[in-house]
Amino acid sequence: MTFAEAVTRLETGLKAGLPGAPAHAHLAPVPPRRWPAGFNPAKVRNAAGLLLVFPKSIDPAPHLDSDQAHIILTVRADGLRHPGQVSLPGGVVDPGETFEQAALREAHEEVALDVDDVRVLGALTPLDIAVSGFRLHPVVAAQSTRPRLKPSDAEVARILEVSVADLFNGEHFVTTERKRDGFTFSVPAFRIANVEVWGATAMVLAEFLALLGWGGPP
């Protein structure tokens, strides 16, 4: 999928209405995680993540049609909670910040993204992450050129530039089992760039891909 086509589809889809929970369900672990007993919803912490779409040529002789849509994902550094997991650039929303401002700030801090070149397209459906007590607000944006990025040593082990075409490719979809707190979960995921993208990140990607015309895993 070309960058121009992806941006057009995203702009149209964001205006028409979000796929929401039905899209999330395609990549949700089974059984789903719930808030712990006695958890006070008023204590949910807001976080924001940036889903940046940008063009990257896959042709040795670049031309317009070779500029394929890609997104940025990060592999969390060893010193963080959930090390090695794949996530969007993002983090906690500071007091007085909008979700958009927080997503852009965190992307700058984590991967040195020059946010002056970024155009925000809209927001996806907020997603509650029961295991960590966060409500994630995904912000969708576009940049017309491939960004120059550098990982923050303290937070990011690797930066992944993932093509939308690879996420659409059913060969990259897997289902694995994971154990936590004595429970076994069936976990759908994307296996790509030698990592597995699962959990909240995969669920956000499922809604993002639905806006682009993805019908769900094979």
Question: Any chance you could write out the topology, listing elements then pairs?
Answer:
Layout: H1 3-16, H2 21-24, E1 45-57, E2 67-76, E3 86-87, E4 90-92, H3 99-111, E5 119-123, E6 127-129, E7 134-142, E8 156-163, H4 164-168, E9 173-180, E10 183-192, E11 195-197, H5 199-211
Parallel strand pairs: 1-7
Antiparallel strand pairs: 1-2, 1-4, 2-3, 2-8, 5-7, 6-7, 9-10, 10-11
The overall average pLDDT, rounded, is 90
Largest sheet: 8 strands, mixed
- Stated plainly, the CATH topology is called Nucleoside Triphosphate Pyrophosphohydrolase
Radius of gyration: 17 Å
CATH class identity: Alpha Beta
Shape: globular
Q: Kindly state the percentage of residues in helix.
A: 10-25%
What's the β-strand tally?
Answer: 11
CATH architecture designation: Alpha-Beta Complex
Percent of residues in beta strands: 25-35%
Unreliable sequence segments: none
Question: How many domains comprise the coordinates?
Answer: 1
By secondary-structure content and strand pairing, the structural class works out as: alpha+beta
Q: Enumerate how many helices there are, as a single number.
A: 5
Elements, N to C (H/E): HHEEEEHEEEEHEEEH
Distance between the termini: 19 Å
Q: What would you give as the CATH superfamily?
A: Nucleoside Triphosphate Pyrophosphohydrolase
